[in-house]
Amino acid sequence: MPSEFELIARYFTRQPGDDGVLLGVGDDCTLLQPTPGYCLAVSVDTSVADVHFPGTAPAYAIGYRALAVSLSDLAAMGATPRWCLMALTLPEAEESWLAEFARGFHALCDTSGVTLAGGDITCGDLSIGVTVHGELPPGMALRRSGARAGDVLAVTGSLGGGHGGLRAWQQGERDLDDPLLAAYLLPQPRIEAGQALRDLATAAIDISDGLLADLQHLCEASGVGAELDREALPLTPGLVERLGDTDALHAALGGGDDYELLVSLPPKAVKEARRRLQTLGVPLTVIGKLSSESGIRGVPDSIPSGWLHFHGEAP
Amino acid sequence: MPSEFELIARYFTRQPGDDGVLLGVGDDCTLLQPTPGYCLAVSVDTSVADVHFPGTAPAYAIGYRALAVSLSDLAAMGATPRWCLMALTLPEAEESWLAEFARGFHALCDTSGVTLAGGDITCGDLSIGVTVHGELPPGMALRRSGARAGDVLAVTGSLGGGHGGLRAWQQGERDLDDPLLAAYLLPQPRIEAGQALRDLATAAIDISDGLLADLQHLCEASGVGAELDREALPLTPGLVERLGDTDALHAALGGGDDYELLVSLPPKAVKEARRRLQTLGVPLTVIGKLSSESGIRGVPDSIPSGWLHFHGEAP
């Protein structure tokens, strides 16, 4: 097995560009030049094989997805992605696997404008920790805590695809062109949508744990309650066909892994928000409203309790 | 098992102070306010149970050590620690274990001036990824690449204690008051020493992989060679008594896990460097010099090849 240093040089070192990286991979630390006056949004997410993704998934998708779930947190703050660091733990370095993993990771770096600026490689069961750094003008961060009674709730894209894709994988689907499987293994963090909404939305969160769980976080942080319109939920195309009506609804409410943005908006801002996202090709759907009465209403009573934790179990 | 959110709230959330944290644990991202004009030094290190530390070590030491190894990278750049994020993967949350783990982590946060600003907890085999952020005035970072032929090589503290402590652990020593075991499980990152040397040293690296391996990195980055004075190596007290002369020397040269700083200095800067470190209570020992001839000389021919990789194996 090549040393950590050889692997980093071979697969994770790229020529620095005009990206604020003063010193990249290869010293004790990475040196970054933040934009003066801006604040820094930082998040770390660890993706563990057979907990958060199937260990036998294509290496390209594993690399892509590990970065995507971290970038989704930047999207939910409305931050502009700048830099990331990767802490890769893997049992044995198969070079063909690593090359594909790096290709997936770098593909999303390129489309999201984030530079891999450092990291480390250690030996152990496969897991990937990605720390992302984004920037925001002062006072512009979208927090979870700004929602007010009377705001409407809206969601980008569609719901349930993450869980639908996990089910498809479990049923043997392996074609990444399958829209559900792609939604699960190659999620698209809503970076541009988050930035476009940061002067309109009162609060935002990304849907990683499932709509209900993340809505609950937003409501608790903001001290409000919510009334959901279950008929309005934008189910991922193909979801009902694969799962049936009931499971499709459950997947949208509790399945997790969708990495869409859930936002609260003053009613008068909805039209402008939708217009801006339309130019980005991202649908925005109103799915309910917020009130001063705590709790979440409009939810079917019949969601099996296991559903809400399904994302935390081995696929 | 309590949820990730409950665990974070209970053990890893502290009241924000005047520490540049605009928004701490509990949103999609942490929001930080970097010092205008300064550059940011960032590093991530993952500590995997039974690879980097014994999984049965005291939880206090595991928490302390996971942060220490990352802070050591900031020390080697001369950076002032500001913020850290922790990605904790653990199989099952025993609350008494977590409380001790958090106590060790926070103890080093307090003495090193770093604020735990975010993180996540996932389920899997025990490993801890710590991303640290430090700050530096422009142009003041200590790099690996600035050493010049004619510089002297010096090292802080003592060498071999990390490996000696690992051997002590393997032999059944469990008392953290044992100096060797403490050197291994509770290493002291040389943060103040790094800052004190940043306008004197021409290059620096922390000794995590072993003196020879890290000296090699420094020499390669700087395009120089080195002549070591093996008689001058400051062996950790008690090391010879425990390992014998030969193994003690091997531990100092190749054992790793010492987290001391290896620096290059112009000869005329040595006296001032030693004076500054003396006020910090940190010894500085000259152990050789750099030349334009590549390679490392003065090394015994007899180091078993396995030694240099020992740190990467299960203790």
From TrEMBL, chains A, B:
Q: What remark does the entry add?
A: Reaction mechanism of ThiL seems to utilize a direct, inline transfer of the gamma-phosphate of ATP to TMP rather than a phosphorylated enzyme intermediate.
**List of residues binding substrate:** 52, 257, 307
Q: List residues of the PurM-like N-terminal domain.
A: 26-135
Where along this sequence does the record place binding of ATP? Answer: 119-120, 144, 208
Under the GO molecular function aspect, what terms does this record hold? kinase activity
Gene for this chain: thiL
- Enumerate the residues binding Mg(2+) 4: 28, 43, 73
- Family listed: Belongs to the thiamine-monophosphate kinase family.
**Keyword vocabulary terms for this entry:** ATP-binding, Kinase, Magnesium, Metal-binding, Nucleotide-binding, Thiamine biosynthesis, Transferase
The pathway entry for this protein reads as: Cofactor biosynthesis; thiamine diphosphate biosynthesis; thiamine diphosphate from thiamine phosphate: step 1/1
Q: Which InterPro entries match?
A: PurM-like_C_dom, PurM-like_C_sf, PurM-like_N, PurM-like_N_sf, ThiL-like
Q: Pfam families recorded for this chain?
A: AIRS (PF00586), AIRS_C (PF02769)
Q: What is this protein called?
A: Thiamine-monophosphate kinase
Q: Which reaction does it catalyse?
A: thiamine phosphate + ATP = thiamine diphosphate + ADP
Residue sites binding Mg(2+) 5 per the record: 209
